[in-house]
Design a protein that fits this description.
Elements lengths: L1 E5 L6 H4 E5 L10 E10 L1 H7 L17 E8 L11 E4 L11 E4 L4 E3 L6 H5 L4 H10 L10 E4 L5 H13 L2 E6 L2 H9 L4 E4 L4 H9 L4 E6 L3 H8 L2 E9 L12 H6 L3 E4 L2 H6 L3 H16 L7 E6 L3 H9 L6 E5 L4
Parallel strand pairs: 8-9, 8-11, 9-10, 11-12, 12-13, 14-15
Antiparallel strand pairs: 1-2, 3-4, 3-6, 3-15, 4-5, 5-7
The chain binds NADP nicotinamide-adenine-dinucleotide phosphate.
The site of NADP nicotinamide-adenine-dinucleotide phosphate has 26 residues, from helix 2, helix 4 and helix 5.
């Protein structure tokens, strides 16, 4: 087998990782061995290798947090019916997925259909569930007329959020920072797309036409977040899930006091750790169905074989905005 192992913590992943060969692992009791098809390259994987994430891997660990593959062996006392099952690996930080073969616990896997798109299923674990949780666990999810505002709307999370909001019948107001990104976002069914910058407040006011946002979902921070915060309904919520500008999210005192708006955060791993396994599995099964019927997808920019991992890491540090990067394992 081959795997990308962390050799040392470094902000430059080409210095932090090494492609290593090893004997195919034997699953221990309660574990399964998965032959991988595809594994997503997320910014959080690079942050983890840089020691800048909530979870810091130890040197020697395989990097990568989600992916898809097929169970090819099970350990002693483990359900043999799992052999042959195609599975998505969730981001439980108990296994690394940038490897041809991965040993994992069945609790960290979701069964996926044989005929599903490997790249879309590889991305199941993190971004679709993040978008679903942002929508369902904040504000008034059962209000059919609710407006959702979001920054970085052309991100993968943004794409899933727009498609899910459309599926649930909610209206979205989407902020992007580049005009050509706006065309992508409109193509996903977004009601309104506005450009970040000095005119953002005017553009949001015009788009909402007197309505207010139930929630504002933010992965950028800084002025864009506070502008959306000004358009929250009374008691509305600004939910931050990343700080891509490096600036903290902000709500003014006027919004916090006069409008009783709230500022909160979301990390998927917190949800997963605090949710009954049966519940989280059921939620994931719904997403598998929505990916299967084409309701949910995210754009893919490029894929890389593991041997070209340095090119992959260089590409991951200079995103083009054209979609996600993934490893694929064509020799498996
Ligand atoms: N809290 C959680 O549980 C959770 C879960 C999933 C993801 N995340 C985080 O959410 C973020 C989005 O993930 P993703 O996979 O959807 O990302 P992605 O598809 O790679 O998209 C990145 C987005 O961020 C925008 N962006 C990057 N730097 C920016 C800046 N300085 N100012 C404004 N916008 C900026 C990009 O805009 P351009 O296209 O214009 O460059 C693009 O829209 C990542 O930081 C990820 O780590 C958090």
């Amino acid at each position: 087998m081959q795997r990308l192992a962390l050799t040392r913590i470094s902000a430059d992943p080409t210095h932090a990782l090494d492609l290593q060969s090893a004997a195919e692992p034997t699953p221990a009791p309660g574990q399964v061995l998965i032959q991988m098809e595809a594994a997503t390259i997320n910014q959080t994987d690079l942050l983890a290798a840089a020691g800048q994430y909530f979870v810091t891997p130890t040197p020697g660990a395989t990097i990568g947090s989600e992916g898809v593959g097929r169970v090819i062996a099970v350990g002693h006392d483990t359900d043999t019916a799992l052999v042959g099952q195609r599975v998505a690996l969730l981001a439980t930080y108990r296994h690394g997925t940038w490897a041809t073969h991965v040993v994992a616990s069945p609790d960290d896997l979701i069964a996926v259909p044989d005929d599903g798109d490997a790249l879309q299923l590889a991305m199941l674990g993190i971004n679709p569930m993040t978008a679903l949780r942002l929508l369902r666990d904040h504000g008034n999810p059962d209000d059919p007329d609710r407006w959702i505002g979001q920054t970085a709307a052309n991100s993968a999370v943004g794409e899933y959020l727009i498609k899910l909001a459309h599926h649930f019948g909610h209206r979205t107001l989407n902020v992007v920072r580049r005009e050509h990104a706006a065309d992508d976002v409109r193509g996903w069914g977004a009601e309104h797309v506005v450009l970040d910058g000095p005119d953002l407040d005017d553009a949001v006011t015009a788009a909402l036409a007197g309505d207010t946002l139930d929630i504002a979902v933010d992965s950028v921070g800084g002025p864009a977040s506070s502008t959306l915060g000004q358009h929250l309904r009374y008691g509305g919520t600004l939910v931050t899930y990343a700080a891509q500008s490096g600036q903290p999210p902000a709500l003014s005192q006027a919004d916090l006091i006069g409008n009783q708006a709230s500022l909160t955060g979301f990390w998927l791993h917190n949800w997963w750790q605090r949710t009954q396994l049966a519940t989280s599995r059921e939620e994931y099964r719904q997403l598998v169905d929505l990916i299967g019927d084409g309701t949910l997808s995210a754009r893919v920019d490029r894929t890389f074989p593991l041997a070209n991992w340095r090119d992959a890491m260089v590409a991951a540090q200079a995103p083009t905005g054209a979609g996600k990067l993934l490893f694929t394992f064509p020799d498996n």
